[in-house]
Structures are given as C-alpha cells and as structure tokens.
Design goal:
Length: 487
C-alpha cells in the first residue's frame, strides 16, 4: 500500500475515532448496555442471553475506568477493526485504495455502523469476527494450507463466542466449500477437519455451560421471535422496513440492481492465478451468506417480529459485492456518490440529535430516550426508597440500578420477572428474592397496559428525569417473596 493511501486511511480512521468518542461520552448507557456491563462483573463462559465475548471485552476495558466511555470502548475498537478488515477485503476485490476507502465509509456512516460503533452489544465483536472470517476465507481460497484452515476454524469459533446467530454462517460455509472445486478437493485432507475441530474447541466451554443450564439460553433465543406475536403481514413489513432503514434507500437500490442484473463472477473459480481464484471464491461465499441469512430471516418473520440487527452478517457480506459491482458497472461512480452522500447526511443528523439533547417530544418518539435520564432516575429512586431493598421487575431496571447506584452493595437488590422474559439475573444467586420485604420498582411508559395493579407513582420522577417525558417510575410499598409467588 502506498504512503498516500496509508495516510488517507489513517486520517479517516482518526477522524472517525474522534466522532465516536464524542458520541460515546455524550449520553448515558442504554438499559441493555448496563446489562452487558453487569455480565462483565461476573466473568464466565456462559450467560443466559448471549455468548461471553462482549462481557469479556467490557471487563477488560473497565479495568481502567468504569465510565460510559470505557464501557463502550469495545464497540469503538471493534468498529474500527471491522472497518480495517473490510478495507483489506475490498483492496483484494476491487484493487484500488480509493474504492476500498469508499466502502469503509459506506459501512461506518450507515445507521448500522453509527449505532454499532458506539453502543456496545454482542453485535460489536460479532461484526469484527465476521469481517475477519471473510478476510481469512480469501487467504484460505488463495492457498488452502493446514495452517490457514486452522486459522479459519478459530475465526469461526470466535464468531460463535460473539453471538449465537453465528450458527447461520454454517450452512453457507458448507455450501461454499462443497461448490468450490479447490476447497472440495481439500476434504480428502486433514485441513477442513482441523478447522471444524478448532471451531468446536473455541465454543466448547460455552456449550458445556449451556448444557449445564438445560440449554435455557438456546431455547429462549429460539422462541424469541415467535413470542413477539403480530400478524405475518405486519411482521414481514417490519422486517423489510428495518432492513431498508439499516441499508438506506440508495444502498438498497444498488443491492437490488446487483441482484436483478445477476452479475456473474468476473473471475472464474477455475482461474489459474491464485488471487483471481480467491476473489471469485469470496464473491461466492458473500453471496451465499447474504442470500441465506436474509432469506432465513424473511421466513422467520412470518412467525414473529425479527430485530433488524439480526441480519448484520448479510449486510457485511453484501457490502463487498455491491462496492465491487459499482467499480465495474455503468453509472457506478454516480451511484457511489449518492450512497456516500446519503450516509453522510444520516451521520450528521445522528450526531446533531445526540449533541442537541432531548427533543421536545414524548418518550415514545424520543430518539435518545433510552440513553438519557438514568442517572437522575436512580438518584430519585434512592431518595424515595430509603434503606428498603428493591425488587426489580425487569432486568433492564436492575442493570441500571447496579451501574448508576451500585444497589446490590448498598441496600440489596433482587429481580423477579413478571412475565415470560427471563434473564441472566435469574441465574445469579445473589439476585434471587429472599424471605424479606421488598419495594417493587419498574419503569414504564404512560399509559402502560402491563402496569402491575397496586403500584403507586414516584412523585419525584417528573422532576428527576424530565428528558424522558411520558415515562414514570412506579413503586409498590411492600412486597414479600414467599416461595415462587409474589405477594
């Protein structure tokens, strides 16, 4: 890589780092981020909701500081790692550093890149491991040595440590190996089987933990979408709308254009040059991953709502295909400019909304409602609850009380989900309700049909958390845990 290309990439990454640090420091943790932080306080190989990689990363960065910035530092570092890996992959597919940098910008300035690059979730390391897997697949296709097979297997195992939905990568990878002549021939040798063994070795501790807990997390994730309910037309529409929002209309148009034209590989799989053969092989793998993940989630949306971010593997696999196609197709330069301009506008809007503070809107329509007001909320609860231990109805509320109030060490905190949604708190003995009197606490929208009868409103709430208009905190004065029932 030339000195000029290196300088451009460095300037871009530093500018993006500054923006992400500003965004990460400007708002409080979301309830789910506080939940993952709670994971990191109890290091383990197994957690109920997700594999352990995100908890391990948060635990590592918060040894320096427990501030919001350091809780989110794994997301920032992973996002930059993903960006650099996509840059390397695009350099091998499209050749020029300029197009590779444009591809990085399209990823980083998309809604998925903006949110995932600041808000820490299991998707943060998952995206990085997927990008690393694609780069590793390119090197494997170029020369399938046993060492590269082992590296590919380790990367696939890391994907499994990041998120359970890494299982969606397995069918496309199997198809890729079977339909790529050079890789299919390797099945006679130990390389592919070493890769399988290494992948299983990485995820074995997590699988053992899941078995010890009766596969509770797997069963929950498997039923999650089906529990969401809703009419199939409504859920499919929500799925397609979510994907359109993540991609953005210009990139979605470019992807649809690519599918409609059914572009063939520019380099046949039987090409003699190793680099050309590897590039053709990676295009095939990206098509398999994107097509399988999007099709599977579309079918799954017929039975319930699907979160838009579940399709992140498809997005990361489709992006190199689109950028590669635009590098050769007619009017590609114009469409690239439209895509990049749209993403820049979205990035400016997101940055402005975050820095401007709460908008004069109800909580239901407040874009940053989930990342503002929690510190004041916990202070108000402390003032009202006095010395009484609390019983949190939701894992999100319990996580926020732990992070902003250190409640478990001060007065005692327990959780008791009043509904089907279980959490990791149910598997931590220190948070199980005991034979004592609690004050039940919850945060709800007003009006909320799920409101438990007998709650009374916390009068200090409106003064304490004005940014979260339309929300309320509710207490029930005396709740005693007796056996399995709440009384």
């Amino acid at each position: 890589m030339s000195a000029a290309a290196t300088r451009q990439l460095l300037i871009y990454q530093l500018a993006l780092l500054a923006v992400r640090v500003v965004l990460a420091s400007a708002v409080e943790l979301s309830p789910d981020e506080a939940y993952y932080w709670a994971f990191s306080r109890s290091p383990a190989f197994w957690y109920f909701d997700h594999p352990p990689l995100v908890a391990w990363l948060i635990g590592a960065t918060t040894t320096v500081s427990n501030s919001e910035l350091f809780v989110r530092l794994p997301a920032i570092l992973c996002a930059h790692g993903t960006s650099l890996l996509v840059y390397l992959l695009l350099r091998r597919l499209v050749g020029g550093p300029r197009l590779a940098l444009v591809g990085c910008a399209v990823l980083d300035l998309s809604l998925l890149g903006l949110v995932g690059g600041v808000i820490v979730t299991p998707d943060s390391p998952f995206a990085t491991t997927i990008a690393a897997l694609l780069v590793g697949a390119w090197w494997l296709s170029k020369e399938p040595t046993p060492g590269r097979w082992i590296g590919f297997g380790l990367l696939l195992g890391l994907c499994g440590l990041a998120k359970y939905s890494a299982a969606l990568l397995i069918p496309p990878i199997i198809a890729w190996v079977l339909f790529t002549p050079a890789l299919r021939a390797e099945l006679k040798h130990p390389g592919p089987w070493l890769a399988v063994g290494c992948a299983l070795l990485v995820v074995t501790p997590t699988l053992i933990g899941a078995l010890e807990h009766g596969l509770a997390g797997f069963r929950y994730q498997g039923l999650r979408a089906l529990r969401s309910g809703g009419h199939p037309i409504e859920s499919v529409g929500a799925y397609l709308g979510g994907q359109l929002a993540l991609l953005g209309p210009p990139l979605a148009y470019a992807l649809a254009r690519l599918i409609w034209r059914r572009s063939a590989d520019r380099s046949p799989l039987e090409a003699t040059a190793p680099s050309l053969r590897a590039s053709a092989s990676i295009r095939r793998l990206c098509r398999w991953i994107a097509g399988f993940v999007w099709s599977y989630l579309l079918l799954r949306s017929l039975g319930g709502f699907v979160e838009p971010n579940w399709a992140a593997p498809a997005y990361l696999a489709a992006l190199p295909l689109v950028i590669d196609d635009l590098a050769h197709a007619g009017a590609g330069e114009r469409l690239r400019r439209v895509i990049l301009s749209y993403n820049v506008v979205i990035a400016v809007l997101v940055l402005g909304i975050v820095l401007a503070g709460p908008l004069p809107l109800p909580c239901r329509y407040q874009p940053t409602a989930r990342v503002r007001g929690w510190r004041k909320l916990v202070a108000a609860i402390e003032q009202s609850a006095g010395t009484s231990p609390l019983l949190a109805r939701r894992y999100q509320v319990a996580s926020l009380l732990l992070y902003y109030g250190h409640w478990a060490t001060k007065r005692g905190l327990a959780t008791a989900p009043l509904g089907w949604r279980a959490s990791q708190f149910d598997h931590w003995p220190q948070f199980r309700p005991r034979e004592t009197s609690y004050r039940l606490v919850d945060v709800v929208r007003v009006p909320d049909r799920e409101l438990v009868p007998g709650f009374r409103r916390l009068s200090a709430w409106r003064r304490a958390a004005e940014p979260m208009k339309g929300c309320a905190v509710w207490f029930e004065s005396d709740v005693r845990r007796v056996g399995p029932n709440i009384r």
